[in-house]
Write a structure and sequence with these properties.
By secondary structure, the protein is mostly helical. Helices cover 78% and strands 0% of the residues. α3 (31-44) packs antiparallel against α4, α8 runs parallel beside α10 (151-163) and α11 runs antiparallel to α12. The model is unreliable at 1-5 (pLDDT under 50).
Length: 285
């Protein structure tokens, strides 16, 4: 009853008062009240595009994606050329793993504004999540034509190029990202991964060491470093790196398993047995 008391306006027949109240309640975090206010206003004036958009946002913040989609579609019935709403719709579809509809929404937005790098980026993400890597590459390249300094687009482009086994172009993408930000840990890590896939273990190791100089708590970098050192037959270094992974995540059963294998290679059978016992204990749970 208290929540209902807050959803009041001086003139219940004035839709703008309801819309203003909806915005104010949303800003205060009262999403239920905000949604009620917008709905009351829309009963009086169902052709207010902004109110439908704000209602969609409130539903999204309240976790009701289906109602959010419905509200955005109502807004688009009133203005089919609203690029922002098409993008919002695409984002919501992605959140519920409806990638086909997300792609359609982003494409519609791009028909209206083909020079928006962010929309091309979003389209690339959606294609990537559908494992349509060739289309993702096209979208990321378009985003980068418009905004060549988008390091995240370069990173994503490199990742999908790995998926199609184009390691040379992937490496170039990561290195361009590092030109923009030499301290980009993800770019260094992906650079290392790509170098490893091409057999350049020495440079792969240097990349992971660079990552760990920037942040010594990145578990993936320690793990990748351990694997690279093992390939190089630097078993002592590999053991140290695997143990670092386990300091960060003592319940990583795969790393305990990997550690046991390397310990056997150096003749530490007691250590290998202890590591295998840890694997059994973790996998039993």
């Amino acid at each position: 009853m208290k929540g209902q008391d807050r959803v009041r306006v001086e003139d219940p027949e004035d839709s703008e008062e309801w819309f203003d109240l909806g915005v104010k309640l949303g800003e205060k975090g009262d999403l239920t009240g905000s949604i009620e206010a917008f709905n009351n206003g829309l009963k009086l004036n169902p052709r207010d595009e902004t109110a439908w958009i704000n209602l969609g946002v409130a539903h999204g913040q309240n976790g009701d994606t289906q109602a959010e989609i419905k509200a955005y579609k109502k807004a688009l019935e009133l203005d089919p050329k609203n690029v922002e709403v098409w993008v919002n719709l695409g984002v919501v579809f992605e959140e519920i793993d409806n990638f086909n509809d997300a792609i359609d929404a982003y494409k519609k937005a791009l028909e209206l504004d083909s020079e928006d790098a962010d929309i091309w980026f979003d389209l690339g993400v959606a294609f990537g999540r559908m494992e349509d890597y060739e289309s993702a590459i096209i979208a990321y390249k378009k985003a980068l034509e418009i905004n060549p300094s988008d390091a995240q687009a370069l990173l994503n482009l490199g990742v999908v190029q790995i998926q199609v086994d184009d390691f040379e172009k992937a490496l170039k993408a990561f290195e361009k990202a590092l030109e923009i930000d030499p301290n980009d840990e993800k770019a260094w890590c992906n650079r290392g991964l790509t170098l490893g896939l091409t057999g350049n273990i020495e440079e792969e190791i240097k990349s992971y060491i660079k990552v760990l100089e920037l942040d010594s708590d990145i578990e993936l970098a320690w793990y990748n470093l351990a694997v690279a050192l093992e390939k190089k037959e630097d078993y002592k270094g590999a053991i140290e790196a695997f143990r670092k992974v386990l300091e960060l995540d003592p319940e990583d059963d795969e790393t305990w398993d990997d550690l046991s294998i390397v310990l056997k290679k150096v003749g530490d059978f007691d250590g290998a047995t202890e590591a295998q016992n840890k694997v059994k204990l973790l996998r039993k749970d």
